[in-house]
Design brief:
Layout (H helix, E strand, L loop, with lengths): L10 H4 L15 E5 L2 E4 L4 E4 L2 H4 L8 H12 L12 H13 L4 E5 L2 H20 L5 E5 L8 H5 L4 H4 L9 E4 L4 H7 L5 E6 L2 E2 L5 E2 L2 H13 L3 E5 L13 H5 L5 E4 L10 E5 L1 H4 L15 H14 L2 H23 L4 E7 L2 E6 L4 H10 L1 E2 L1 E2 L4 E4 L7 H15 L1
Parallel strand pairs: 3-15, 5-6, 5-7, 7-10, 10-11
Antiparallel strand pairs: 1-2, 2-3, 4-12, 8-9, 11-12, 13-14, 14-17, 16-17
Helix pairs in contact: 3-12, 4-12, 13-15, 14-15
The structure holds pyridoxal-5'-phosphate.
Length: 401
């Protein structure tokens, strides 16, 4: 009888030879991380202004996250399924409800899944009001909602969609600044929901204006449709508010969360108000892993930390500092044409391609992401310090010189 031996991982193999080629990972092989820095196998240290694409809000090796993982492990309940009740998911759902507009929470495993659930719940609600015809989703130009068939259908990236059509039918895109196109896209007989990211992330770090969000809310109400906010990237403290919508004073019917929720473990959540939740029946939606005891326990710890007023105040203050330093940088760099963002989510809009800038920053020991062709995106851990920001600005200045 043969036994399956654990593979001996060579550095070159670990870089991904057997991993399906859907990614083009950068060259360094990362082996360790602490605080706001990651270390490669050659002993080089990098300052992280990506945080696992907005996931590692508390940085790396956070003592509270580690303790939560260890405590959850000691119960023996890593997973049990939603056939049975467990305490951590119920407690986390209550925390999210207490902190938001929502009355109920559905747990899943990623941002795209949270949006798929949102679309199903919106359709379920809409069916009670207008039958099958009332199924359409209105999404915004520049949007990104994920890579599954429904989420991708609502993502304004024709090139990303093209190889996989047909996608979920019934999605209409509107320009957020064009009130007339919004009016033309909506119809109470057809529209189930409008979906928007209060701060568009992948679409180039573009905060929507309060007037646009208010118009979306009014348009949804006028057309008997729901308003969904996708805060997978901009939610959970990233803008310096627990939820981005709170700074706008515009309240959605459904809110989706993921990235930082469980401290780096995979978790998504779809928050619903009572009028949507009461249309959902057992069996309408499900996922094996959603809201498992381990992830839910860790998420409760992360949420409690991020929701502290002092934590959020610090994010806002550091965000203002980063904003000011980026403006200074832009003033001395001809290739930077705009600086936009919110909290600790910023985009440097360039008049040259962003990917070579990100590659040059990596060479100097700074991790930054891109958002589209010409935007360098900065998503540092929310526990970053002012001196880390100074260090990042100095490296960006060298790169952009
Ligand atoms: C706003 C937004 N929605 C949804 C997603 C998809 O999340 P996931 O990659 O966890 O499926 C992302 C990912 O970047 C996102 O930024």
């Amino acid at each position: 009888m043969s036994t399956l031996a654990a593979p001996v991982i060579q550095p070159s193999a670990a870089a991904g030879s057997a991993v399906l080629g859907t990614y083009r990972p950068a060259a360094p092989l990362f082996v360790r991380a602490d605080g706001v820095r990651v270390h490669d196998d050659a002993g080089r240290t990098y300052l992280d202004f990506v945080s696992g694409i907005g996931v590692n809000a508390l940085g790396y090796g956070d003592a509270g996250v580690r303790a939560a993982i260890e405590q959850a492990l000691s119960s023996g309940l890593i997973h049990l399924s939603n056939l049975y009740r467990t305490e951590p998911a119920a407690a986390l759902a209550q925390m999210l409800v207490d902190a938001s507009f929502a009355d109920r929470v559905f747990f899943c495993n990623s941002g795209a899944e949270a949006n798929e659930a949102a679309f199903k719940f919106a359709r379920r609600w809409a069916r009670t009001r207008g039958g099958e015809a009332k199924h359409e989703i209105v999404a915004l130009r520049n949007s990104f909602h994920g890579r599954l068939f429904g989420a991708l259908a609502a993502t304004d990236r024709p090139a990303m969609q093209a190889p996989f059509t047909p996608l979920m039918p019934g999605v209409r895109f509107v320009d957020p600044d064009d009130a007339a196109s919004l009016d033309a896209a909506l119809d109470p007989a057809r529209t189930a929901a409008i979906i928007a990211e209060p701060v568009q992330g992948e679409g180039g770090v573009q905060p929507l204006s309060p007037a646009v969000l208010a118009r979306l809310r009014a348009a949804a109400d006028a057309n008997d449709a729901l308003l969904i906010f996708d805060e997978v990237q901009c939610g959970l403290g990233r803008t310096g508010h627990l939820f981005a919508y709170q700074a706008y004073g515009v309240v959605p019917d459904i809110l989706t969360l993921a990235k930082p929720l469980a401290g780096g473990l995979p978790m998504g959540a779809t928050l619903l108000n009572a009028r949507v939740a009461e249309t959902i029946q057992p069996g309408d939606h499900a996922t094996t892993f959603g809201g498992g005891p381990l992830v839910a326990s860790v998420a409760a710890t992360v949420l409690a930390r991020i929701a502290e007023p002092a934590f959020l105040l610090r994010v806002r203050e550091l965000g203002e500092y980063l904003h000011a330093r980026l403006h200074e940088l832009a003033a001395g760099c001809a290739s930077v044409v705009d600086v936009r963002g919110s909290g600790l989510m910023w985009g440097l809009v360039l008049d040259v391609p962003a990917a070579p800038v990100a590659a040059a920053a990596l060479e100097r020991g700074l991790l930054v992401a891109t958002a589209g062709e010409r935007v360098v995106r900065l998503l540092p851990p929310l526990v970053i310090g002012a001196s880390d920001i100074d260090e990042a600005i100095a490296m960006l200045r060298e790169v952009l010189a």
